[in-house]
Design brief:
Oligomer: single chain
Strand content: 5-15%
Shape: globular
Structural class: alpha+beta
Length: 470
């Protein structure tokens, strides 16, 4: 496994050398063979357990902890950083693209603020399972290469077996990374970080000067819209859209408080710490816009004049709503297989969503029913019978194909995820995991034989909560 150094040339504040802590008894619990093949990583359990637990280090590349700031639930923390993560370096895939290889739960760092830097087995497995499910659903996401158990106890409430998760990401450059360097007054580092991010993620940007920063902000904004639209298309609730959890690459990161919506309601929240619904399902677009505004503020020091910077950057930030609404309308048009555009489409969608909320209909299964009804006499909820007649007029011979491509039949249901995690926490293995992941080989194909994965929980996750996992 050949690693390369990353980020250390940008700023001494951004990437700080920091060694993981060895663990008592590393054992490879989960390994993503398909993903490993893309990086020519051989499945050597003993070697990988030591390397991916932080117990063995490649002496040619020094591990680092990354610094970043973050607006957490709207409150600014100027110095957060990787409190329990070590970046081992970058690794190239078969196409030559570099990916960060990061260990999460490998011990305390300079950013730990008194924490132990460890991770329990539940959050580690959750990240592996959820990121693989979202990848299969076509959502941009960080990936998990492995989960290694440590043979140690992590003291949470209650105490849990410890684990280290290996994350692969196109980069770990966050909105908070720019906030951090701007707050530190490191203008040279900030300029280098923009150039590095452009080279990694937006190589088509070839302008210079202040126009370069405007185009960069626009490109990040477009990626965030694409990501949030994809979340809302499948009913995904991130749960903690802080600026430190917003990658400028547009990849999903941090699966702690995430959940899937069952009954349709834009106000759906599952995170135990989101008391105000800041990161509710329907508020995710507003937060993405807010995060982009924070990125714009961080770029202001790169402009010759602050007033001019605000004048040039504000139109980009203010243009979020129009761009998002266009993409949002297209999403509903695809989910409903609407033929062309019609002036009554907005009312048709609004009526459907109103009925779904009123009658507490399952988001995924409702769109499955509508999709499959185009091919057969599929059961439609009684509450939608009259609406269904109006909708049918707007479909065409291409509607089924369009709808089936965007409406998943299988999603990572919250109750199923919790069952898998409970099995791992209790015995270190799960009888459900393999069958569950196999269902995501074709998550957009409806198959009644997958009955157990298609069903919503009987209580629709009433009183269900998710937690940060730190």
């Amino acid at each position: 496994m050949k690693l390369q150094t990353r980020y250390t040339d940008i700023s001494e504040l951004l990437a700080i050398k920091d060694m993981p802590s060895a663990v008592a008894e590393p054992q490879l619990l989960l390994f993503n063979d398909k993903l490993a093949d893309n990086f020519a990583i051989k499945h050597d359990s003993e070697f990988l357990a030591k390397l991916l637990s932080g117990s063995t280090i490649d002496n040619d590349v020094a591990p680092v902890a990354l610094g970043y700031s973050g607006h957490q639930f709207g409150h600014f923390s100027p110095r957060l950083g990787d409190g329990r993560a070590h970046l081992l370096g970058a690794i190239a895939d078969k196409d030559g693209t570099l990916w960060d290889l990061q260990l999460k739960g490998a011990g305390a760092t300079v950013f730990s603020r008194g924490g132990d830097g460890r991770c329990a087995i539940g959050p580690a497995v959750r990240e592996y399972i959820m990121s693989e499910a979202l990848h299969a659903l076509g959502i941009a996401t960080t990936r998990c290469l492995a989960v290694v158990t440590t043979g140690e106890t992590v003291y949470r409430q209650p105490p849990r077996p410890g684990a280290v998760v290996t994350r692969l990401a196109k980069s770990h450059i966050r909105v908070g990374s720019f906030q951090y360097l701007a707050t530190q007054g490191d203008i040279k580092g900030l300029e280098k970080l923009v150039d590095y991010a452009i080279n990694c993620h937006f190589p088509d940007i070839n302008s210079t000067g202040e126009q370069r920063y405007i185009e960069f902000l626009t490109a990040v904004l477009d990626k965030q819209i694409e990501l949030v639209i994809s979340w809302m298309r499948i009913g995904f609730i991130h749960g903690v859209m802080n600026t430190d959890n917003t990658l400028i690459s547009g990849e999903t990161i941090d699966y702690g408080p995430c959940a899937m919506m069952n009954q349709f309601d834009l106000d759906t929240v599952f995170s135990s710490i989101d008391h105000q619904g800041r990161y509710a399902f329907g508020n995710q677009p507003n937060i993405a816009n807010w995060n982009i505004a924070r990125l714009a503020e961080s770029l202001i020091p790169l402009f010759a004049d602050q007033e001019s910077a605000v004048e040039q950057l504000s139109p980009v930030v203010n243009g979020f709503a129009a761009k998002f609404n266009d993409a949002f309308n297209t999403m509903w048009q695809q989910k409903l297989g609407l033929a062309g555009q019609h002036e009554g489409d907005h009312a048709l969608v609004s009526e459907l969503l109103g009925l779904m909320k009123q009658h507490q209909l399952d988001y995924t299964n409702t769109f499955n029913a509508l999709t499959e009804s185009l091919l057969a006499d599929f059961a439609i909820p009684t509450s939608l019978k009259e609406w269904h007649k109006k909708w049918n007029v707007r479909t065409s011979s291409k509607s089924y194909e369009t709808m089936r491509a965007v409406n998943p039949a299988v999603i990572p249901r919250n109750h199923t995820i919790e069952m898998i995690l409970a099995e791992y926490e209790a015995s270190g293995e799960s009888s459900l995991k393999d069958a569950f992941l196999e269902a995501f080989n074709d998550p957009y194909v409806y198959d009644e034989r997958q009955f157990e994965w298609l069903q919503a929980p009987k209580d629709y996750d009433k009183n269900y909560q998710t937690f940060c996992g730190t």
